[in-house]
Each structure stands twice: as structure tokens, then as C-alpha cells.
Amino acid sequence: MDTALWDARCKRAGEPLWRLAGGHRQQVPVYDTEGGWLHLTTDDLVKGALRAQKAGWAGIKIKVGKPHPAEDAERLRAVREAVGPALHIMTDANQSQTMSSALRLAAALEPYDPYWIEEPLPADDISGHARLARATRIPVAVGESLYALPQFRTYLETGAASVVQADAARIGGITPWLKAAHTAESHNVMVCPHFLMELHVSLVAAVPNGRYVEHIPQLRAVTRGELAMRDGMAVAPDAPGIGIDWDMDAIDDRRVA
Ligand SMILES: [Mg+2]
Q: Which of 159, 94, 108 is nearest to 131 (CA)?
């Protein structure tokens, strides 16, 4: 409802979401998640990273959480060697680690300079994330599994999050997303939302601490048009509204009675 009301508000005002929500700048960096899944071989990871780099994108993400941290470290090492020092390589553990394994994993990954380690621990373990953040120089990223603004506040106040990944679809819409982003800004922490690039491109563009859009093209089947890219940067849509061109026929085809 909140997102629909923002859409109506933007259309009535004749403004695109990125401008009405803050209007910081229209183009934002993109990182690719599509080439980094845990089941892919190391060769595939390297190919995906080189493809993103060639396209002019500033970052890629690889999933971690293999049975032994040495295997994750080896996959990251291979990618780092292929792309050189400048490309940002995000890592994502999807809440798979225990406290002790997360400490070991972070230590194994550190030499290859990951841009962040995402959801190393279960999302409700805030003190665990704070402890890990103190023990590693890799920034800790959280947010895709947080559903309320006070959780973000506690993560930030305790130093447990160095990157906030609020997801508008999970936190209750654009209004609470902006509150989470502004709360992060007050702690000098960047916001790099999880998933839903078609909407989040406009929100990252709106706020000064918006840093990255995550490239996961999983809404292709129900939308028309592609995320606009210019010189390796995503461009927030200029049309009035939230900027998503839904394919209503494709959505109707998926209706369950
Ligand atoms: Mg994630």
C-alpha cells in the first residue's frame, strides 16, 4: 500500500520517484549477483566477474558458505586475481555461519579484500554481528532479513552493521525504507538495498548515502523494459511514478484462482 501510494503521489506531482524521494543524483553504481551463486564453479565465478568488469560495472557478489572456509577463500582468491585490486567483490553467507565459523571465515577472506561480508550470522543475532564487526576489518552488511525500523537502529547503535541493505518490499514500503536509509546516514553508513533493482534504483538515487544497486534480473518475466544502464551505471527512471512498467498480462497468467 505504501509503495502504491508513493506511485500515485509521484504521478500526481508529475515527478519520478528518485527526485520526489530526495533527488540526490540520477545515476548509481551497480554490482552483479547473478554470476556469483554458491553452486557455480570457480571458473564460472571468474567468467562472471570478468563479464561484469568488462561491462564497466564497479562490483560483483559471490556467495560463501562452502563446507570449509578454505574453499570459499580459494574461490575469492581466484576472482580477485582475475579482476585485479579495483573491482569491489561483495561476499554473502546468507546467515549460514556460527559465531566461531564466521570468525574463521572472515579471517580466511580478509587477504582478498572483500568489499563486505553479508549476513554472516542469523539475522536476529545482533550482538554476534557486533562481535564479528569488532574482530574483522571486512565491513559487515545486513538488512535483507530485517523487517522493522528499530532493528536497523539497534544494529547501527551497536556498531553491528557497516552496510545497510534495507529492502522496501520487506520493511513495509518506501516510507520506512527512507527512514532506515536516513537512520543509516546519521551513523555515516551506506545503504545498498537487497534485490528488487527495478524499484531500488530510484531509492538509491534519492539518498546521499545510497551506494549500490544489486543486479538480480528476476522480475524480467513480469515487467516490460530493462534496467537502464549508462557507462556501467544504473539510471533511475525519469517517468512520473515509481518507474516499474509491469506486464499485467504476464502477471494475470500467473494468477492462482
Ligand atoms: Mg543476501
A: 159
Show the domain range for 90: 22-216
Residue 225 domain flag: no
Tens digits of residue pLDDT in 181-211: 999 999 999 999 999 999 999 999 999 999 9
The span from the CA of 5 to the CA of 12, in Å, is 10
48 in a domain, yes or no? yes
Cβ-based burial of 235 (10 A; exposed 0-12, middle 13-18, buried ≥19)? middle
Spacing, Cα 97 to ligand 1 middle (Å) = 13
The CA distance from 217 to 226, in Å, is: 9
Cα of 118 to ligand 1 centre, how many Å? Answer: 6
CATH number at 134 reads: 3.20.20.120
Whether 194 is catalytic: yes
Query: pLDDT grade, residue 229 (50/70/90)?
Result: very high
Whole-number pLDDT of residue 257:
78
88 is catalytic: no
Question: Of 63, 88, 129, 200, which is the active-site residue?
Answer: 63
Domains of the chain: total: 1
- Summarised one tens digit per residue, pLDDT across range 56-102 is 999 999 999 999 999 999 999 999 999 999 999 999 999 999 999 99
| Domain assignment of residue 100, yes or no | yes
